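Thread: quick sanity check before group meeting

JM: Hey all, I'm pulling together slides for Thursday and realized we never actually wrote out the predicted structure for the chain we discussed last week. Dropping the sequence here so it's in one place. If anyone has concerns about the input, flag it before I start.
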Amino acid sequence: MAAATGVDMTSPSNCWSSWPRTYQEAVALQEQLRHQVQLIPLPCPPRFVGGADAICDRGDTRIFGAMVVYTYPELELVEETGAAGVCPFPYRTGLLSFREVPILAEAFARLKQRPDVLLVDGQGLAHPRGLGLAAHLGLVLDLPTIGVAKSRLVGQGEEPGLEAGAASPLILAGKVVGMILRTQKGRKPFYLSPGHKITLAEAREIVLGCVRRYRSPEPLRQADSLSRRLRSETVNLDVRRGDARHDGPK
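JM (edit): ok, ran it. Output follows.
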């Protein structure tokens, strides 16, 4: 029941005219927005859970965003969409959202089925200024979001037990900002933190509920696969266009 991927590879990303262009502007906006993040319980159990991921090309000039939606808890793929555009911000530690939010928002706008909760490949509250990619995206979309990161950005915590579901708190400046969560027995854990409009306990339950055969939650695994596929298709298209130019009339 998966819908066709809706991708316009020629469309520019939705970069707002006021979007920060410098490090100083980005940090100032994070300091302003961090106070708007809400860590509140979901109004009801989710029926649709989404996954969001973005990736740049090797030249760091173009960016590809992917959104997928699954039923929950059945985990049947409902829809996937993508978008591509010019990378709006250079890579800077702690400022990933200024690079990825515009293209992810564009991909999200193409969805027909809005998810109740969105898993994001990045940090939520576990961020130097409390506004990682998941939190920032949640504010922009006005949607409950969960940050599911592969590596630690801030905070301290003990390695959790080896069993699936084992977790230990991730602490920053004496405050719990997330957890180190092992989704499969003996596999490397994720760094989980709430993004917006969800609690840490709910985030853990939903992430574990999205794990099947693989370590990564299924919506995020599928979003990662789609973003890489979009990048690969664009590279192959560029190669074919280049070959066509060389093979044209001399």
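AS: nice. The two ends are 49 Å apart (CA to CA). The first helix runs from residue 23 to 33.
JM: adding both to the slides.
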